Amino acid sequence: MRVMTISPNPALDLSISLDSLRLAELNRAQSIELQAAGKGVNTARVLVSLGHQVTVTGFLGADNDAAFVRAFSDMGAEDYFLRIPGATRINTKLSEANGNVTDINAPGLEVDEHSWRRLIEHIEARLAYERPDALMIGGSLPPGLPPSAMGSMVKRLRAYGVPLWVDTSGAALNAAVSAGANAVKPNREELAEWAGQPIADEDALHQAALSLYGQGIEETVVSDGARGVTWVSARGVWQALPPKVAVANTVCAGDTLFAAMLHAVLSGMNPDEGLRLATALSAEAVRHVGVGDMTASDFSDLLDDTRVRRLNDVVAGGALA
Ligand SMILES: O=P(O)(O)OC[C@H]1O[C@](O)(CO)[C@@H](O)[C@@H]1O
């Protein structure tokens, strides 16, 4: 299948592993890696590894695109990014031996409304002669754009009738939901922000996920770390609990989950099998820097140790009844 991922504000991830982070002191790293990333790029990596043909687009700073160009060629994705003056941001990820991660995400290159329209037209120029099986928008909006920019992109692209999956947060998530995105993947905090109230327990999480589904989000995926994944769709409400793994770096777990869910839906996998694959792959991702790796020698154990069930009771009382 063909997928185009769109990264309005990609990043180079600088992943620094430390024994423990000491604030306002000299810290010595155990290892440092710099990798082309951002939600759209990470999603592309996973989709290619699952056998899809992927085109990547968005904005890249012309001054430091070499790491991205190399990454696209290594992963086998087609580079359809627009270059803009300046350097793509660097996001710092400090991971400690106990599994804690401190994220410091830079704002990114400023983009004005004119450049935003240029990106939408660039994508539309492609859609005019080649329709992918899905489109995916990943990550935050660049500084300089109002949240409504996300809504206008979603509306314009939805007109092509291609399923549009969006992984973003805050006001941009609200705009994507109102504009008719087909799938989103908030985590617990992002879902609470969307719902406008704290999510105290599992029941509140399910109800908020059902409300999101009720807004027309056909594939509502909520990630909640080690507490699992909730998926609401026309197939019902499903829940997965990941296997226990040694946590090294959680940064790409959500991206891996969403990409594998997109794969599951595109491939028409049955809900149990699809959610199991996505949850296990996302658990695999937290064992190291970067996205989940299906070729890990114990991946079949991770699949076996992932628990998946359909929550019929929630379906009966909720929006799907
Ligand atoms: O666009 P945002 O919200 O700043 O998120 C970007 C970050 O998200 C990730 O894709 C992880 O989800 C990182 O690779 C990247 O640094």
From TrEMBL:
| InterPro entries in the record | Carboh/pur_kinase_PfkB_CS (IPR002173), PfkB_dom (IPR011611), Ribokinase-like (IPR029056), Tagatose/fructose_Pkinase (IPR017583)
> Which keywords does UniProt give here?
ATP-binding, Kinase, Nucleotide-binding, Transferase
Q: Please tell me one Gene Ontology term that the record gives under cellular component.
A: cytosol
* SUPFAM superfamilies named among the record's database cross-references: Ribokinase-like
Cross-referenced Gene3D superfamilies: 3.40.1190.20
Named from the GO MF annotations, one term is:
ATP binding
- List residues of the Carbohydrate kinase PfkB domain: 21-293
Q: Give any single GO term for biological process.
A: small molecule metabolic process
NCBIfam families in alphabetical order: 1-PFK
Q: Which family does it belong to?
A: Belongs to the carbohydrate kinase PfkB family.
Identify this protein by name. Answer: Phosphofructokinase
